[in-house]
Amino acid sequence: MHQENLSMKMSRKMPLNALRVFEAAARLGSFTKAGDELRMTQTAVSYQIKLLEDHVGEPLFFRRTRQVSLTEAGERLAPKVAQGFSILEEAIAALRSDAGQLLHIDSTATFAQQWLTRYLGGFQLKHPNIAVRLSTSPVVNDFASTQADVAIRWGTGHWPGLKMHRIMRMDFSPMLSPKLAATVGGIHEPADLLKLPIISAADPWWKQWFAAAGIDDPGLSRFPANELGTQSFDAGMALASQGVAIVNPKHFQEEAESGRLFQPFELTCHDGRDYWLVYPESRRNIPKIRDFRDWLLEELAPFYE
């Protein structure tokens, strides 16, 4: 009975509001940003953090001018608090009606255009109560400056604090329109590509692919060093017979099947970067995230290798 009473006292004393403030400040690395998110003044945030520090008996943050960072104790506490709030959110979500759920997906532009928008309807047929908001961004999504639930990233898969699933291998190879190839009598060997305009010639993929094809000095500097930003734009120029693009052939299978683009050589290269589905480790059990993850991994299983 004594132990039960003690537990009830501890429960009543637990500063839950201070823990919520601590979670936001630790995630955002700023008392000011935490206050903005929680609609609190910086003074109120500082008070709640001090309350929690008094409760645990040691500092949780180093305070510096315009910057705060976690102490060793704070580093130990932060992931546990984030996980605790995630479990609470999951429990509440499970009790609510599924109607009106919104899943915000942030993606690279090419993956969104060439894959997600073409197949996302399958996810919504399977989960009609989850609405989808799709945004694209050329920068790495850090989940602190966006409301996205999940992100599609291109890279090596080294992002601490995030749960990661490799969803598509990023091979690359030249592709062009049959109409453009016909202007030089067809493409019979890799050197024939250099008779045509090379799109985004400064892209390191070109040098890597030509080296693998046995051409160490393709003279790419004579072509405009355009930077179009996404494979979709490069492929758009190739579809218009404006040049040869170097892209991931898996993204443009429909264009190849329809005869609008073709891959003249089976040779593909890989630079160690692939497509990944990522989301905060602390949110891995949120139902809508779990549903999207399971659907995406099943749909993209053929693209793993």
Tell me about the largest β-sheet.
Answer: 5 strands, mixed
Mean pLDDT: 86
In N-to-C order, the SSE pattern is HHHHEEHEHEEEEHHHEHEEH
The CATH homologous superfamily of the largest domain corresponds to Periplasmic binding protein-like II
* SS-derived structural category: alpha+beta
Oligomer: single chain
CATH class of the largest domain: Alpha Beta
Spatial strand order of the main sheet: 4-3-5-10-6
Rounded Rg: 25 Å
CATH architecture of the largest domain: 3-Layer(aba) Sandwich
- CATH fold-level assignment of the largest domain: D-Maltodextrin-Binding Protein, domain 2
Helix fraction bin: 40-55%
Instruction: Work out the count of structural domains.
Output: 3
Strand content: 15-25%
Number of beta strands: 10
Keywords: DNA-binding, Transcription, Transcription regulation
Domain HTH lysR-type: 14-71
Protein name: LysR family transcriptional regulator
Family: Belongs to the LysR transcriptional regulatory family.
Structure summarized in a few sentences:
The chain has helices at 2-13, 16-28, 31-38, 42-56, 72-95, 109-126, 178-182, 204-212, 231-239, 253-257, 287-299, and strands at 61-64, 67-70, 101-107, 130-136, 150-155, 162-168, 171-175, 245-247, 269-270, 274-280.
